Amino acid sequence: MTADAGPRAARLPGVPPEPGxxxxxxxxxAEGVTRTFGGLHAxxxxxxxxxxxxxxxxxxxxxxxxxxxxxxLTGFDRADSGSWSFEGQPLAxxxxxxxxxxxxxxxxxxRDIMNPNGTRFPHLYPSERRQAILPAAEP
Length: 139
Ligand SMILES: Nc1ncnc2c1ncn2[C@@H]1O[C@H](COP(=O)(O)OP(=O)(O)OP(=O)(O)O)[C@@H](O)[C@H]1O
Ligand SMILES: [Mg+2]
Known about the structure:
By secondary structure, the chain is of the alpha+beta class. Helices cover 20% and strands 23% of the residues. The chain has 3 helices and 4 strands; from the N terminus they run ββαββαα.
């Protein structure tokens, strides 16, 4: 990541825009989370902190391990190692139904974008969907 992380970085003053950096008020903290499939190291997360109230995205190329990490943190899969906590409550090793009670639900991919009037947009390409929801999403 470059030093210029954009205007939203200003919401965390003093926090360098680097992976795994400590946040002032993290709601989720993960440490040393790994998952291998045979010889494939699908997830190797040294440290991850998600700041309370900050819209946070996990990005990476296809196969980087994003879905696997979400599966681990939400109890849909078992990590080989690591620990993580939500609001200070350790969640590693808990089944999904207990994580839901402790930290909230995980949602799967959303296929349909809804109009404000509750009807679905017709089938759109992702770039068109973005244009369709921007007027409603941005103040
Ligand atoms: N159940 C599994 N068994 C074996 N390999 C798996 C399994 N699940 C994921 N993988 C492998 O782990 C790696 C990470 O996959 P993952 O689906 O987490 O990536 P991703 O970042 O979500 O990718 P995408 O952007 O395509 O959704 C890939 O190489 C994938 O083939
Ligand atoms: Mg994925």
